Amino acid sequence: MTRLALVLALAAVPAIGAAPATYTNPVIFADYSDPDVIRVGEDYYLVASSFHFSPGIPILHSRDLVHWRILGHVLPRLPFAPEYDMPGPHTLTDAISKPVGGTRYAGGVWAPSIRHHAGRFYVYWATPDEGIFMASATRADGPWSTPVKVIDQPMLEDPCPFWDDDGTAWLVHSRHGAGPLILHRMSADGTRVLDAGTTIVEDKVNLPILEGPKLYKRDGWYYILAPFGGVEKGAQVALRARDIRGPYEQRVVLRQGTTKLEGPHQGGWVETPSGQGWFVHFNSTGAFGRISYLEPLRWVDGWPLIGAPIPGSSAGQPVDRHAVPDTRNSPAPYRLQASDDFSTSTLGPQWEWNHNPDDRAWSLRARPGFLRLTALPAEHLVTARNTLIQILQGPSSRITARLDPRRMVDGQRAGLSLFGVRPSWIGLVRAAGKTRVTLAREGVETAGPVLTGTRIDLRTDVTADQRVAYSYSLDGKTFVSIGTPIPLARFSWWKGSRPALFTFTRDRPDGSVDVDRVVVDTPIPAGRS
Fold it and tell me: Which of 34, 94, 130, 514 is catalytic?
């Protein structure tokens, strides 16, 4: 062993009497909503809802359940209906949240589940308008198979597959509006259901808005872990039965308790190689979306207890801090990818498009080292194609984008937005041969100074109180504020607000803008303007 290797090995060994390493919740302060998690070997994988964003179904990877990176996506595009290409006619504007005609806002992928069976990864999901789908792969980073429609029926949600010890395959899901829970037999390959389904759990009094079921087996019992009570205020229930068809007993196993988390629920159970149990769930935070928490899970008299015990209750409550999981791995230096200098031939896994992009209107090759966005016709940002977004990270974030506007034409807009319902943005508007710095809020544009240089840095500062302050710089050093801080939309078609690069035109469709780089600082650096 080299001296360096010996030093590193000794550094990884805790000192005698040293306090155990701890983590602090949330472990993912970003909008990976409706998480499900599995372990394969010593690796952990998480999938989350992606709704109308493309590529769809992000896959996160971890070695320790605390630090995560973005591995990729299951769906390269959303192939389910023409509306995912935003064809119009459009009824939506930047001043309203609905109707969403000509688009699929709030559609797309709802609450996926991930499992590993017979050497393959399987992901199941529902789209509210089209049905329940599945894709599989031998590796979590793909390539993934073309989606297969498992159930051709709208208004279903939150499917989860299960392969029993004898190889029998099952699928449990809920219905749009949440509840009841319905169980199907599936073909062994998981590509189709074999029956019309049987309702196995329905209790509108004690378990209203029952959804997001995850099905497991332990010590001869079948368990369903499911949220109930709704996104903002819900809790988590465990259901168990000796027969997968029921009848199921029920017990609330995670709720708010004395904590500040009003809706700790919906997620997945996973065990480490040492047998420790853990539960990853979300809590709704408004503009930052539904962020992920990690709770210890232990078994008491055949029931899971999630989080810290609540005296006199069978339920647990969320932990703020806890000893790190015993994963037998050293802490991995993973972080969610964010900043990008566009120096590679593909977009980083942090980027998604608002609906499917028009691939003819963006390029990383037209000007190496830059992202070129070509303006397509639109009247509003929310109906513009090729808006490139990433998930907002908390508890605060600074996003700075450098743009070269020299290819812009009259009628074109380009800039940086906190995208969502009734969006705001800072950017450039080209009209009458002049390019002006502009601030927009809910469709109302306020023109600023004329830009005479060849580049501009646009900046958003998103603070913990869920407001965004916009500024710009002509030299990359001194930033000038424009407008006053703007409250972010609390919830936008089931998602939080998202940083977004955009361009669109109300006139000539041949202009473009080059983006040099995007720098993301989380949290906002102290003492830096």
Answer: 34
φ/ψ of residue 185, rounded to 5: -75, 145
Distance CA 49, CA 36 (A): 10
Q: What whole-number distance in Å separates Cα of residue 433 and Cα of residue 143?
A: 47
The token pair that represents 289 in the structure block? 């979306």
Q: What is the pLDDT of residues 69-98, one digit of tens each?
A: 999 999 999 999 999 999 999 999 999 999
What pLDDT does 8 receive?
Answer: 33
Q: Are 101 and 82 in contact (CB under 8 A)?
A: no
Beta-carbon contacts of residue 353 (< 8 Å; ≥ 6 apart) = 53, 54, 55, 386, 387, 388, 389
Cα 103 from Cα 91, distance rounded (Å):
9
End-to-end CA gap in the chain: 47
Q: What is the enclosing helix (H) or strand (E) of 3?
A: helix 3-11
Q: Cα separation of 329 and 440, whole Å?
A: 48
Which of these, 23, 31, 119, 42, lies nearest to 70 by C-alpha position?
31
Our answer to whether residue 352 is catalytic in this structure is no
* DSSP label of 313: -
Q: Is 0.85 topped by the overall pTM?
A: yes
Which pLDDT score, from 0 to 100, does residue 508 have? Answer: 77
- Rounded to whole angstroms, the Cα distance separating 479 from 499 reads 19
Q: Which pLDDT score is estimated for 19?
A: 63
Beta bridge partner(s), residue 251: 238
Which H, E and C letters describe 205-272, residue by residue?
A: CCCCCCCCCEEEEECCEEEEEEEECCCCCCEEEEEEECCCCCCCEEEEEECCCCCCCCCCEEEEEEEC
498-505 and 376-377 as β-strands: parallel, antiparallel, unpaired?
parallel
pLDDT for residue 177:
84
Tokens of 331: 């802490």
What is the C-alpha separation between 307 and 238, in angstroms, rounded? 14
Q: What is the distance between the alpha carbons of residues 52 and 382, in angstroms, rounded to a whole number?
A: 12
User: Would residue 34 show up in a list of annotated catalytic residues for this protein?
Assistant: yes
Could you tell me which of 203, 168, 201, 206 has the C-alpha nearest to residue 182? 201
pLDDT at position 18 is 54
Residues (pLDDT < 70) of the chain are 1-19, 527-529
Exactly one of 83, 130, 211, 514 is catalytic; which is it?
211
Determine the residue type at 183. Answer: L
User: What pLDDT sits at residue 423?
Assistant: 97
β-strand 120-127 against 110-117: which pairing, if any? antiparallel
Backbone angles phi, psi at 421, to 5 degrees: -60, 130
The phi, psi pair for 236, rounded to 5°, reads: -120, 135
